[in-house]
Amino acid sequence: MKAAEEFLNPVVRAIPPSGIRRFFDLAAEMKGVISLGVGEPDFVTPWRIREACIYALEKGYTMYTSNLGLKELREEIARYLSQAFRLRYNAEKEILVTVGVSEALDLALRALVAPGDEVLIPEPTYVSYIPCTLFAGGVPVPLPTRMENGFRISAAQVEKAITPKTKVLLLAYPNNPTGAVLNRQELEDIAAVVREHDLVVVSDEIYAQLTYEGEHVSIARLPGMRERTVVLQGFSKAFAMTGWRLGYAAGNEAFIGAMTKIHQYTMLCAPITAQMAAIEALRNGLGEMRQMVRQYNYRRRLVVNAFKELGLPCVEPGGAFYAFPSIRHTGLSAEEFCERLLREERVAVVPGTAFGPSGEGFIRCSYAASVANLTEAFRRMGNFLQRLRKP
Ligand code: PLP
């Protein structure tokens, strides 16, 4: 018999384990670690949302829902997208409720990408984009971004990377891991290139609500873009609902129809209890969501100032809950820096290289952590940096 590994799909076999996982495993073995490593709200889901789920269970809501998701939820999503982001979608045909944005991303790529199609992906990139492109049979084409440009991609950069095989531009703003956002003009310039070369955009807007200065602009809102964009949104970050596994995709009928075709044979539907809770989140949970966003904004300023004081250059993040400072001047690689910071000071952050080679020289710190933990983590980081200066 062949070795078990030899039975595996070579595409899956070739994908290395997540660079974040290794640090979690290391941190889990240690005591007294302050983690700024995870991209997860430190808040518990607001009570009214949890209560809606309990009530749904009491009432016996334990069945499958329609493949698209509960009609009531899709109607709430359509209303919310329209009011919050001026995006208009038909609840009957243009919205699909999914098991997190993770599933929506996988479905979008599998529905759109044919073997050999190229997918443009700004880098540093969220860890799932390249593996999911490969699972779909596509070819990921990273577009490296630089601190000097605020980690924002430009229209010229997109245009330069386009080949006859390019099919999809994957946008993710506000960005994980850099916290970068694109303004309307930058999006308009990119949209012009997308239209000219007849591409499709998969726009992961999971952090849209966590935009701290000005309003979040979805590329789907720009002229001529609605029909060539799939917007991915969800409940994990804004409503502190990571464990509920609920997200959604909005797009034209053909895109959503194709995604639903895959979803109905794989996932069937998202959990009904999470869907019932999400209806409450959109109907009555926006106030609590905004309160959490205010907290993140307060912490964001604290973190940016703290990095300034520590002498680590850091682009001010415009969204999400991550800072991505440079540690180049320490002479350590991102991996070495993170491993030593963890072992010597018990602070867990993620090496920028977990998000692609252009992340070398950077670390990702999540500020979805309490002010007390952030303050203590920065005190420890200060000690560490001082020791690096005077060995
Ligand atoms: N997209 C981005 C950019 C993320 O950072 C994450 C989670 O960290 C996800 C998608 C996954 O979200 P979900 O919990 O909705 O699957």
UniProtKB/TrEMBL annotation:
Gene3D superfamilies: Aspartate Aminotransferase, domain 1 (3.90.1150.10), Type I PLP-dependent aspartate aminotransferase-like (Major domain) (3.40.640.10). The keyword Acetylation does not apply. Its cofactor is pyridoxal 5'-phosphate. The keyword Endoplasmic reticulum does not apply. GO terms for biological process: amino acid metabolic process. Residues 32-379 form the Aminotransferase class I/classII large domain. Its EC number is 2.6.1.-. It is an enzyme of class 2 (transferase). Coiled coil: none annotated. InterPro entries: Aminotransferase_I/II_large, AspAT/PAT-like, NHTrfase_class1_PyrdxlP-BS, PyrdxlP-dep_Trfase, PyrdxlP-dep_Trfase_major, PyrdxlP-dep_Trfase_small. Keywords: Aminotransferase, Pyridoxal phosphate, Transferase. GO terms for molecular function: pyridoxal phosphate binding; transaminase activity. Pfam families: Aminotran_1_2. PANTHER family: ASPARTATE AMINOTRANSFERASE, ASPARTATE AMINOTRANSFERASE-RELATED. Belongs to the class-I pyridoxal-phosphate-dependent aminotransferase family. This is Aminotransferase.
